[in-house]
Amino acid sequence: MTTHLVLLRGINVSGQKLIKMEDLRRLLADAGFENVVTYIQSGNIIFESEQTDKVKVAAQVKALIKKQYRWEVGVLALDLTDLVQTIGNNPFLKQPDPDLKHLYVAYLSEQPSADNLAKFQAFDIGRDEAVLGDRVLYLRYASGAGNTKLSNALIENKLKVVATSRNWNTTLKLRDMLSERS
Q: What is the distance between the alpha carbons of residues 156 and 116, in angstroms, rounded to a whole number?
């Protein structure tokens, strides 16, 4: 069995695309995923599956949500290696006294093209900072997530990828949860 982390994009935000985590856990368990757990209400799911291919796992979860709720939802599947690499490569941690409350990671469905990255970099994001990694965009919000232009919608629009963001503490917690299963 392979342990997967699945991140859903844009559920339970501002009263949109509401999914109760209990219902989601049951839906996935009924579909054959095992040891399904969720973390907070923003669509973080950990489970085991016979399927090893992360792209296929994401497609399965996306299809289940579409069938059950009739919504298109961005779905990204990761594993422990992905999170360890993401955490270890965060350039903002290499700076003196990083303010962890202002650090986020936008997980991307694929590496953006050079042209789309150039369009993104040309956009004025004010004092916020964004650094592209391997299928992630490291974000540092100068005045917090509630006051940024760097929304998932903007990232997706400019980079032409699916993006879903998590704050730094959530990223660390998800890593820890995956580590406990290994």
A: 10
pLDDT mean over 89-97? 92
Give yes or no for residue 15 having a pLDDT over 70: no
What end-to-end distance do the CA atoms of the chain give, in Å? Answer: 11
2 - beta bridge partners? 49
DSSP 27-77: HHHHTT-EEEEEETTTTEEEEEES---HHHHHHHHHHHHHHHH----EEEE
What domains are there in the chain, each with its CATH number? 2-78 (3.30.70.1280), 84-180 (3.30.70)
pTM attached to this predicted model: 0.93
Q: Which backbone phi and psi does 100 adopt, to 5 degrees?
A: -65, -25
Q: Tell me how many degrees the CA angle 16-170-182 measures, rounded to the nearest 5.
A: 120
Stated as kind and residue range, the H or E segment containing 132 is strand 129-132
* Distance, CA of 58 to CA of 6 (rounded, Å): 7
For 78, the 3-state DSSP assignment is strand
